[in-house]
Protein 1
Amino acid sequence: MRLNPDKKYLNMLGLAAKAGKVVSGEFATEKAIKEQKVCFVLVAEDASDNTKKLFRDKCSFYEVPIAVCSSKDELGHAIGKMSRASVGITDSGLANAVAKYFDRNDMEVV
């Protein structure tokens, strides 16, 4: 599976994963949000409606930026894992770098 060239944020997500600055999976991401360890959250478009609502609500409450994007497979592939419904970035610099792609491309940022 190759990354879509217009989804350059996935490359940045891969760099964050290599640097050890991501948490992935629903439980780990939710826990990191509650502990205020994440700076940006990505949720897969094909995640269940309950999962998307859970992360929108948690991120809203804890004031963490969130974007709904890509598929579970793409998010997982970007960080070198199997499919993931959610990924949280724990480094503010890397989180800002990923977030910039959403502002520039007018993608959904919740």
Note: The first strand starts at residue 22 and ends at 24.
Protein 2
Amino acid sequence: MKKQIFLLAFALFAAGAFAQQDTLKYRISLKDKATTTYSLDRPEAFLSEKAIARRQKQNLPIDSTDLPVCRKYINEICQQGVNIVMTGKWENFVTVSCNDSTLIDRIAALPFVSTTEKVWIAPHPDKPSMATDRDSLINRPTLHPDSIYGLAMNQIQLSNGDKLHDAGFKGEGMTIAVIDAGFHNADKITAMQNIHVLGTRDFVNPQADIFAESSHGMMVLSCIGMNQPEIMVGTAPAASFWLLRSEDEYSEHLVEQDYWVAAVEFADSVGVDVLNTSLGYYTFDDKTKDYKYRDLDGRQALMSRQASRVADKGMVLVCSAGNSGMGSWKKITPPGDAEHVITVGAIDKKMLLAPFSSIGNTADNRIKPDVVAVGLGADVIGTSGNQWKANGTSFSSPIMCGMVTCLWQACPNLTAKEVIQVVRQAGNRFDFPDNIYGYGLPDMWKAYRSYLAGKN
């Protein structure tokens, strides 16, 4: 049975590659899973051993959201003449591609279809659709013998993450998924060769080279996974990583949230513990799809709804707050408005707010961001293989993500939701949170000590 499931997943993924030739993509939301051939009494037929074990360890129920999208529904949708791009089981939808919008009218009339929404239109054919060139490598990073962390010392020391490392908690045995836009040169940079990468997956375009696409994910990865003493050591240097691409930098459409959903569910299936996503969306090429402040309730954006389920599956999601603090929008960006996630704002190494860091609260008045970390003048590895400085909550998120991973390694009896709450409680503004710093800068050593005290 497991073999059949993985073959089906591969077939759907291959269909996504074929669908790149089409010019339209639609999200087909379904009413139910009434024709499923699976049973909640036999989760091994549709969940991996690691996914089941994670739920059992945290006493989490396996429910209907875990059931795959009904194969009968998928087949009937295919019969209308469209191609399957992907499916999302937690939110129960199918994303399809075609060249004829009238096909969607026929699909909308099917009795099991709830709604349909256009989520992508092909850009002009003259525009690029994938990267073909790579930046030049230098691979001569500067040594800083005064610290094993190199210049990155402050960005972990501010939260006492180095004390977790000194106590032996560096992320060993933990798996992190980095969901991003690409990992340019990460496979060629000498200083990154000892990062333990379990695998990669491109949900945007399987024909693309994930190591030729955007450098953004590579810099994000360096914040967490670097393990080169005196050059740079990240915040979880002994963790293992899945590198997943969901962001299409060549256009901005709702379908990128569909790709992100697929990446999250893939991460669940391969046994990931913690996810980092330094992505956020509030404006699109189709301006009718732009979000408004009132939409920041954790339920409007697809990826916010998906993000809110992550902890229910036993994983912790760490995400960036956004970089709109100096613009007209100013607010956090989905999925940063989701419930049960750690949304991270940015400060500098003097603990002052980065002016670009997006602010909260959510539309339903929940505290956001949750916490802050260094995101102004953050130390990263650049595409040349040498050290760079970078600005953005894109980097405060992974810096925090690695420390959260090490904390969870140190506190293995905590559930995902308990980890999130412990991190908030360790913030230096926990007693007086606001919509700028959230609960503040967490002290990870304090969080660990509190965990130990609670066990006694």
Note: The longest helix spans residues 393-410.
Protein 3
Amino acid sequence: MGGYGFFRFSLPITPDASFEFSEIIIILSLISIVYIGFVALVQRDMKKLIAYSSISHMGFVTLGVFTLFLAYQPDQVEGALLGLEGAMVQMISHGFISAAMFLVVGVLYDRLHSREISTYGGVINSMPKFTGFAVLFAMANAGLPGTSGFVGEFMVILGAVQANIWYAVLAATTLIVGAAYTLWMVKRVFWGKITNPAVATLSDINTREFFILATLATAVLVMGLYPQPVIEVIHTSINHLLQQALTSKL
């Protein structure tokens, strides 16, 4: 909703204020990406970890939106467009990945009524199909190339390069932190030997759960491998929004 507000209200209705506060928002975005990434790294509750990672990922959205004012050049608008389109793609991708990750936690909670990472361990031994989906979504959450999580973040970083190379470097290096907390959770929950006897009694996903997870997995992979149709759909609107954001109302 916040990202939608920037696209539909802040940029087209108050472009001058958006420009005036753009550097502050960029700094706050970078703090969100970096700091919240480290906060996610120390979480012991899976749901909290995913929630904090969502905040970190939304920092890429605001970074992409407001770097347009620094990346724009009259003879070259690609940098500004990349940031805006990347922010939009990131919002769409986040809808798929975040929903999938929370569903993964929901499936585990439905069986053991616990979201604590320490409760689990070796889930792959009793739920191999479920683990396959969970690891895919976790890798998408970490921005693995070939998944939708990579496309939006990469476009935002390319747009940030046009504005300030150090913005892009800082945002890009924090992807390492994202990979760290994601892989840490995957290792503790899914891999290895069963550490809790209750995990050995878990039943794998049923047909209904499989269908929902498979639908989300298809969306994540299709958008990650071939995002062009989505980008083409939003390109005209984003180009119009760019012109509105760069037209002063004073």
Note: Residues 2-245 form one domain.
Protein 4
Amino acid sequence: MIITATVMKYIPTNAYFYVDDGTKHAFLIDPGAQPEVLMKIVQERELIVEKILLTHGHFDHIGAVSTLQKELSVPVCMGMRGREYIENPEWNLSAQTDEPIVLKNVAFLPARTTLSLSSNPEYTLQVINSPGHTTDGVIYYDSRDKVAFVGDTIFAGNYGRTDLYGGDESTLLNTIHNVVFKLPAETVLLSGHSEPTTVSAEKKMALYV
């Protein structure tokens, strides 16, 4: 089961719970804001969050992390290049707000790391590097359910900005063609700022040529 929660302080962002229905254990992906909203979902659904996963280090994807670390007492993980974002409010863009963000106690995951729920090892997510929107971007992909949590790498009919710290359009287009589009055609792409789409739907668009 996937639970989508669109949270907002400055920018609406999709946070996701990837849940094993049988045990209610879950990964929480990109808790960008409103920790109270996310905690309400945890409590009402009786979820047991095992890990918080970040697709990249922009403020609208990490804004609720510090509070949830305390509330849930769980590890926080992101890609190997994440340190320069979470330790630098300029790079994570929170310096532009009234609440600069610096995160601590974050694990940095190498590409091809496989994460499994302890309650059910069949629930796994593979870490795939996806630079371009940022240098630290990663996708979390489950080959069993054919679902990929893609952050701001690609949206329905669009792709992430490349004019921010660490962004590069040619790198991002390379990631889309050689990483995202190499996933099975039926893979559902769950992004930070759009409705779900699929690999096959996005391949048909001239936008990525």
Note: The chain has one domain: 2-208.
